[in-house]
Amino acid sequence: MHKLIILPGATDALGGTLVTLSLLIKGLSQRNLTPHFCVLTRAGSLMESYLTAAGHRDALQLIEGECDRTFVANALKWVNQQPHQAPLLLDNCIARELLGTLIKGSLKLRLSRRPVYFFFHDLGLSYNPIGYYLRKLMFTGLSPIGLCNSDFTAGHVRKFVSDIAGALYQPVDTDKFRPLSDRTSTPPEPLKKIIQTGDRIMLTPSRLNKPGIINDKNLRGLIPVLAKLTEQGHRYRSVIIGEDSSEDGSHTRALVEAAAAAGVEHRLTILPPTFEIERYFPYADVVVTLAPREPFGRTVVEALACGTPVVGSRSGGIGEILNHFAPEWTVDPDDVTMTAKTIHTVVNSDHTAKTLADAQAWVKSRCSVETYAQSILNVVSSADKFSEQQTTQQPLSKHVVGHE
């Protein structure tokens, strides 16, 4: 058999893509396949720290690089030194700063006839015609087989890659994300005072980003919904947890100002990102996510695994997930009245427990670590090949590869 080489495109970003990569390593390692794959990782990066802390050090091949662009350039040099039959999985290597490097490297990969796969964690869209052209050029050169995190994503990236192997829903670590009844814990400190007030908690784990971009998280859509619930006499507190992607904190200020203008500033709480988001889900009454073009929606399946219902946008990957078991939990994010009504109904309905049980069964079936790892194996090779012990297998060095 031949080793699977995984090359991620963002090594200093803490988000769903990194979490998914860590869970893929966990799933493959549980099958005793660590000798049969490696993850190229920029030395000294957040990714190296995160994956090492998760116990995945043995799966990493460290590559030097001052930034992701030089890391990918050096990684491709290393890849070209490996047996040409070894498949290469490019994990969302679609950032603008990587395009030139990948276009340049695509010729050698193409000539070597190395099997190349590309996992899309987002839609790959660009408002800039030059950015779109460069992506087209890169994918033409690489000619990869595509994998996607949802059918919604697949529908958008077919303009880049016509050969789509399938949609692989992202995994959930059910050892961490589980209902309150299955764990011994106390509420996270930031939630304790809110719980004591008796307010219902609307939780939204999300990066605070610029409104109007392609993957707009639409956090501003929470404010009028919160105002409508308050106007109707319901006591809800909107709790947003996530990093402010602006350099000056302007995205946070904009939300606070909007809440103040709507008279609900006292009902909005914005908390910094946390590595322990699984502690927050079980204490929320509902997770609300109104992003209209979210490619998948990791927070949806994580919340459900914790036994927390989700009200979300009926479009994009969020709607795709919820429509499998709870279409009545989906909303038009622009319809404030209906969104508020749906939230209050889901929180108080006797039927929610039954729907939630169906949702958790779906997550267990479609989003398990084992299912995800097996799906990757099914695409890049047969499970039998990855399970065989090969005495002729060429070993991969574990030293840090530099610029030589």
Spans of 5+ residues with little confidence (pLDDT < 50)?
386-399
Largest sheet: 7 strands, parallel
Mass-distribution shape: globular
Our Rg estimate from Cα atoms comes to 22 Å
Count of alpha and pi helical runs = 15
**End-to-end distance:** 28 Å
Strand arrangement within the widest β-sheet reads 3-2-1-4-5-6-7
Q: What's the total number of strands?
A: 13
Query: Helix content range of the residues, please?
Result: 40-55%
What string gives the helices and strands in order?
Answer: EHEHEHEHEHEHEHEHEHEEHEHEHHHH
Query: Which structural class fits the helix and strand makeup?
Result: alpha/beta
Proportion of β residues?
5-15%
Average pLDDT taken over every residue:
91
Give an account of the 3D structure:
By secondary structure, the chain is of the alpha/beta class. It has a seven-stranded parallel sheet, with helices on both faces. The radius of gyration is 22 Å and the shape is globular. Helices cover 40% and strands 14% of the residues. The model is unreliable at 386-399 (pLDDT under 50). It has helices at 16-30, 46-53, 68-80, 99-112, 129-142, 151-157, 189-197, 222-231, 250-261, 298-305, 316-322, 336-348, 352-366, 369-380, 383-387; strands at residues 4-8, 37-42, 60-63, 88-91, 116-120, 145-148, 164-167, 200-205, 236-241, 268-271, 286-289, 310-313, 330-331.
